[in-house]
Write a structure and sequence with these properties.
- With 118 residues, the chain is mainly α.
- It has one domain.
- It is 83% helix and 0% strand.
- It has helices spanning 2-23, 28-45, 48-55, 57-60, 63-81, 85-111.
- Helix 2 packs across helix 5.
Length: 118
Amino acid sequence: MDYINAFWVGGLICALVQILMDKTKMMPGRIMVLLVCSGAVLGAVGIYAPFQEYAGAGASVPLLGFGNVLWKGVKEAVDAEGFLGIFMGGFKASAVGISAALIFGYLASLIFQPKMKK
C-alpha cells in the first residue's frame, strides 16, 4: 500500500504542477520556487510531516520535499547554533541531494549527447 500511496500522491503533485504550467503564465522557475517555499511553509506549520508519513517518496521526492528538508535543516541548525544556523542549516541538510544531482547530471551528460531545444 505504501507504493500505491507514493504513486498517486506524487502523480497528483505533478499533475497539479502541470495544470499550473498550462493554465497560467508562470514560468517554470517561478513554479519551482513556489513549490520549494510551499514545502518549507507546510513544514513550518507542521502539516508536511504527517503528509510525508502517509505518502512516503511521493511527498519527499518532489520539490515540496526539498523545501521541507531545507526547513528542517534550518530549524535544527538554529536550535544548535543560534542565529548563524539560519545560513548553515539549509546547506547541511540538502548537501547530499544537491551533490547527487550534480554528479548524476554530469554522468548523464557524459553518456548521452546533450542537445539544445529548437
